[in-house]
Amino acid sequence: MPHSELVTLVSDLIRINSVNPAYEAGCGETEIQKFVMSYFASRSIRVSAQEVLPGRPNVIAALPGRNPSGRIVFEAHCDTVGLKGMVVPPFDPQIRNGKLYGRGSCDTKAGLAAMMLALADLQRSNQPPASEVWVVSAVDEEHSYRGVWELRKNLQAGAAVISEPTEMKMAVASKGCLRWRITVKGKAAHSSKPFLGVNAIEKMARVLRFLEDENVRLKQSSHPLLGNPTLNVGLIQGGTQVNIVPDSCWIEVDRRLIPGEEPSQVFAEYRKMLEGLRPKVDLVMEPQLEDYPLDTAVTAGIAGCAAQALKEAGLDASPIGVPFGSDASKLAGVGIPSIILGPGSIDRAHTAEEFVELEQVEQAFVVYRQIMRTWQ
Quick one: average pLDDT of 62-77? Predict the structure, then answer.
């Protein structure tokens, strides 16, 4: 069981509603970022707000190091997904059998708390770290990544550790994501004379069959830590009522990328293949999201430093890959070697009874503090 200061801090963060406004109306990250600012300011740690959206800033705490030219960034997002369907109190943290329940407990308030306390503990030890340490509480990870996009502007750092639920295993690779909408056009007509119209749903069925075959082809590509790329059609809508030939049908596609795949190139390839269907299907493709894969070399300094800290804590230091996206790939995209490392399981994130194992939260605190102390 972690010490009470860490449990209290995680619980305090869970109590603050920080649901991303894209999912539910509310305060967003405003109140939680005020709490994070106050936490560091009250401990005489330099802290600043980086405006991202009105009332939704990133919060950056900094502790100087012995090497004035070195810097390592520890980052966790403070926003959460919505509350629909939850069967545990979202903002009333409860401990049962060594697990702490509540919205954001796993994704990623436990990791944020461990980073915050690790920095505070390092500051009160009066032993400056080897390099400057930043702890960043970032906004909008759960929707559009606008927090990390703002953070990375003109950012200079030698490494980054991103907290996401990896069960305290070091992830050096993650899949990217490409999402787009496909709209098929038809022609409306009365259903008693369907030959006078063009059924957009029937045309879409041909697109869906192509995408189903595409999933088979994707199994031919693979990454040693991530496996093969995947494709999923997650949404579909078409027609207006049952007795009208539908003049429109759309689907939304989620394509997970592995290192070596470039989102815009993959999108262009699908456009070419779908526009080349014969007989021709009248369709429009609209991109919605692009997120690059992460592929940090296991020989990178941060990977070695984190592996050593994990070993000293008695944990498995083997590198892994994860199928989900995070802020890590955005920082890696501007030349900052990044890893993903945090308490909890991704299988618990966004769920009806989200929880985090308190033992892993304590492990995160210990490992983060050691990396902060020694990275240079």
Answer: 96
The string over 285-295, giving b where at least 16 C-beta atoms fall within 10 Å of a residue's C-beta and e elsewhere, is eeeeebbbbbb
Residues 121 and 266 in one domain: no
Looking up tokens 């059609």 gives 233
CB 367 within 8 A of CB 168: yes
Given phi > 0 = left and psi -120 to 50 = alpha, else beta, which region is 274? alpha
Query: Facing residues of 137 across strands?
Result: 59, 76
Helix/strand/coil for 145: coil
- Could you tell me if 20 and 154 lie in one domain? yes
Q: Given this model, what pLDDT does residue 1 score?
A: 44
Q: Which helix (H) or strand (E) holds 261?
A: none
CATH number, position 272 = 3.30.70.360
The pTM is what?
0.93
The domain that holds 35 is classified in CATH as 3.40.630.10
d(CA 126, CA 134): 17
DSSP code, position 178: E
Q: Which helix (H) or strand (E) holds 302?
A: helix 301-312
Half-sphere exposure of 352 (CA within 13 A, CB side): 3
Tokens 């295993």 locate to 169
Q: For 328-356, how does the pLDDT look when each residue is reduced to its tens digit (9 = 90+)? A: 999 999 999 999 999 999 999 999 999 99
Other beta carbons less than 10 A from residue 192's beta carbon:
8
Tell me the percentage of the chain whose pLDDT exceeds 70: 99
Residue 256 and residue 161 share a domain = no
